[in-house]
């Protein structure tokens, strides 16, 4: 992942948890070229269970002819504290 002759690499990813981000968040915005975006996230604790759910949506017509973009993503996770 680093340098011209790299043979391997490592990647560490740490995701959000319901313990660190409790509550609900909603966000929406729009703009030129038919751009629309929506995001929703909710997280919390239930005893020793930590829950998190997140959903994203993005859509636009594009600034060039025939160049629309659309992205949808969702993540749901549950963890046992221990």
Describe the structure in brief.
With 82 residues, this protein is an all-beta fold. The chain contains no helices and four strands.
Task: Give a verbal description of the structure.
The structure is a single chain. The chain is mainly β and 82 residues long. The chain has no helices and four strands. Strands 1-2-3-4 form a four-stranded antiparallel sheet, with no helix packed on it. Strand 3 and strand 4 form a beta hairpin. The protein is flat and about 55 Å long. The mean pLDDT is 86.
Q: Helix-strand pattern, N to C?
A: EEEE
This entry's quaternary arrangement is single chain
Q: What are the low-pLDDT stretches, counting only 5+ consecutive residues below 50?
A: none
Cα(first) to Cα(last) distance is 34 Å
Q: In which order are the strands of the major sheet placed?
A: 1-2-3-4
Q: What structural class should be given to the helix and strand makeup? A: mainly beta
Give a short account of the largest sheet: 4 strands, antiparallel
| Helical content class | under 10%
Q: What do the pLDDT scores average to?
A: 86
Measured by DSSP, the beta-strand proportion falls in over 45%
- Shape descriptor reads flat
Number of helices: 0
Question: What is the CA-based Rg, rounded?
Answer: 18 Å
Number of strands: 4
